[in-house]
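Thread title: Can someone regenerate the structure for this chain?

I was given the following input by a collaborator and told the matching C-alpha cells would be attached. They weren't. Posting the sequence so someone can regenerate them.
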Amino acid sequence: MADLNQAKLLPASSLSNGKLLLLTTSDQLVHVAVNNQTEWDVVTIDANNKGASSAECVISWGGTEIIVDIGKHVIVTVIDRWRINAGLEIKARASAVASIVISCQVDRYPVA
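Best answer:
Regenerated them for you:
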C-alpha cells in the first residue's frame, strides 16, 4: 500500500494538476497513470456544472465507467483520492456541451 505521507514531487508538465478541462460529448484524456509497480497515482477529480440544467459527467478508465448526474450550478467530487497505476488512461466526457468543467489533482506515491 502507498505511504500517503510521502508524496513524490513531479514536474507540472507531467500532470494535469491545476488545469481546467471543459468537457465535450467525446472522450477527452484527463491523465495517464504511472506505469510501474513501485508507484501509485492518487487521483481526485472535481466537476463543476456551469450549465442551466443538470448534465452527466462520465469518467472512464480500463473498462470502468462512472456516470454522475450533476445538478445545475453545482460542484461535486467525482473521484476522491483513488489509487491507480499500470499506465491506465483516465478519460472524461459530458452529456451536454459547454456545461461541465473538471479539475484533476494527482499525487504520486511510492508503494510501501
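The chain has one domain: 26-107.
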